[in-house]
Amino acid sequence: MASSLPLVVSLNCIEDTSFEVEALAGVASVEHVGLSHLADGRIETAVAVLLHSLAFLPRAAQRRLQPWQLILCLGSSDRAVDSALAADLGLRLVHVDVNRAEEIADTIMALFLALLRRTNLLSQYSSSSSAASGWFGSIQPLCRGMRRCRGLVLGIIGRSASARCLATRSLAFRMSVLYFDVNENNYVKGKGRFQQSSITFPPAARKMDTLNDLLAASDLISLHCALSDEPIQILDAECLQHIKPGAFIVNTSNSQLIDDYALKQLLIDGTIAGCALDGAEGPQWMEAWVREMPNVLILPRSADYSEEVWMEIREKAISMLQAFFLDSVIPNNDISDEGEENSGIAYEGDQVENRELRTSQSKESKVSGLPQNTVTRSDRRHSRSSKKAKKRRARQSSQQKSHDFSGVDGSYSSQQEDDTAISGMEQSSRFASPDDSKSKQICHLESNMESSSRKPETMSEGLNRKCVELLKDGFVIALHTRERTGFHVSRQRVPGGGWFLDTFSNVTKRDPAVQFLVSFKSKDVLGLRSFAAGGKLLQINRRMEFVFASYNFDVWESWMLEGSLLEDCRLVNCRNPLVVLDVCIEIVAVVDEEDGVARWLG
């Protein structure tokens, strides 16, 4: 009976076909044919052929394929090349693939961790006999340069499902996430075209206006650009000049997105701390000394592989074959592209609320006769509350009480006396102190939980008040000069030197050097952490200069805010009241009291 069944050949693809044999029992017979058995004639007699990639087969195998056969290409690494070759040979080729965003994000995270923690170098050293000397011996030099993940800034170039998954993982590691959308910013300039994507990032991720700004602010950089036309260089030699010194680069996308020669020179110069590539091409990476560098990791095009992915592809191919043999259905390409996959995580970024809020609002829109629902609809563009409908009446009645911020701030004072970390939930923090050893989640304090039952005032009403009491822990602000002729910025006057507070007029509030994180020490005492200076606090040095030098509240880092309006106030140093900084404060980002996530305004 087996001889009467149609034959399915696995051509240099699946050696163990027991899974396919069991699934297609009574429908078709399945055999594996290796490249050494091409002359056996099994390929020509097969009705369907399974293979990895048509382009990777030798010409002798390609010539044996017949136009009337159904050829399933399982997980091809370059579908465009295989399709073009099949058209030239007159073959009927069907691509079968699944989404691999989770695998790519896992690999990128593993590569970043390996570079930050130097695990590849230390694992080689641990096998030697000298490893017994331990931390205080010869292993200490190998550990120099190791970094912690918390507080680092991840810059994502491109918008895809794997980029979204990577952003979610990075936020769990208490990193800050920036991203730059290549399509939306028209970065291609007609030289090529990138695949459009509707992927949305988590609300805590911040969108950057220019690629150079992202490179200058990111400690970790990952590329997620899927090309549909000829490849172009996103990170060319000129663009790489803006990269932050000491940054790490990981590229699991097309290798032609980066200027390899410029990247290699940055490694030699020590401008970047390391890089990891999935499938490096070109002679510049073939030199043995480059591959042996401890801060260079090169994978053989394996970032998107997992056993789960391979089994999903095989199951999808079996379903196609069953429909083909039993129902005479000729299959089409069944591909779950990375940029089109919807994993059920509906992030809407800065413009739309999270999925819970949209679901509750859609349910409420069907309910009539509730006057408080009408009020909520008019305010929901600005409100960050996601309470259910049954609690809206109670929150609306206590809405006027939400104008009083002093009670909430007062409850923080006992918890923040020795605060060495940036306040607010750590997953929404922009930076974290390198010396911080405490994990504080102020958004879950008892006092905040009590006030969360009250509906907060809308964003438009709150910011129009312009009162100093509006400033809360975790808010991001920009400091205008009193005349609003420029911004107070944090910068290094000498490369590699200390950080000073200077004034510039040719910058915008989008510049990380302009942005400061409000960190309350007590009810009336606050500190300002600089984004550009890695979370250091504004303070006064012995020369009475405004500098950023410490991560902890000690003596000179505490400030009092005087004034009734944000547009006309001043910062007074608690240690020396004669040190005054006249400023005009603009709120750039606020922290949602409901979920503790910082959301950027405008």
Automatic annotation (TrEMBL):
InterPro entries: AN-like, D-isomer_DH_NAD-bd, NAD(P)-bd_dom_sf
Biased composition range(s): Basic residues: 379-395
Stretches with biased composition (Basic and acidic residues): 352-366, 452-461
Region (Disordered): 335-461
Superkingdom: Eukaryota
Ranges for domain D-isomer specific 2-hydroxyacid dehydrogenase NAD-binding: 110-300
Any Pfam family hit: 2-Hacid_dh_C
Protein name (Swiss-Prot/TrEMBL): D-isomer specific 2-hydroxyacid dehydrogenase NAD-binding domain-containing protein
Origin species: Dendrobium thyrsiflorum
